[in-house]
Design a protein that fits this description.
Cytochrome Bc1 Complex, Chain D, domain 2; 104 residues; mainly alpha
Length: 104
């Protein structure tokens, strides 16, 4: 019974921005930079600069569903390719990306 309750609790756990940060470092930081400003070391070689996650304009009207779709499927016409990851990784990455948005 305790194992079942623990499993149910873990299944409904909130996404962890801390866990999402490790996914960001591995998959996103090279282009988007350590603070999400679109200034990673690979950004200089891209024809268009990567998105700046610290910009209020980027976040205006952006839903988690749209963000997940872009991460998973990529963005045609840009260097942003899709990344295959499980739902928990995706949720945690979105939680981390949300920490980069401006609070003002």
């Amino acid at each position: 019974m305790i194992a079942l309750l623990l499993a149910l609790t873990m299944a409904h756990a909130e996404p962890s921005a801390t866990e999402g940060r490790s996914t960001y470092v591995a998959k996103c930081q090279a282009c988007h930079g350590p603070e999400g400003k679109g200034d990673g070391p690979a950004a200089r070689a891209l024809p268009k600069p990567p998105r700046d996650f610290s910009s209020a304009a980027f976040w205006k009207g952006l839903t988690d569903a749209k963000l997940k779709a872009t991460i998973s499927q990529g963005k045609p016409g840009t260097a942003m390719r899709g990344f295959a990851m499980n739902e928990a990784q995706l949720d945690s990455l979105v939680a981390y990306l949300r920490t980069l948005q401006p609070t003002d």
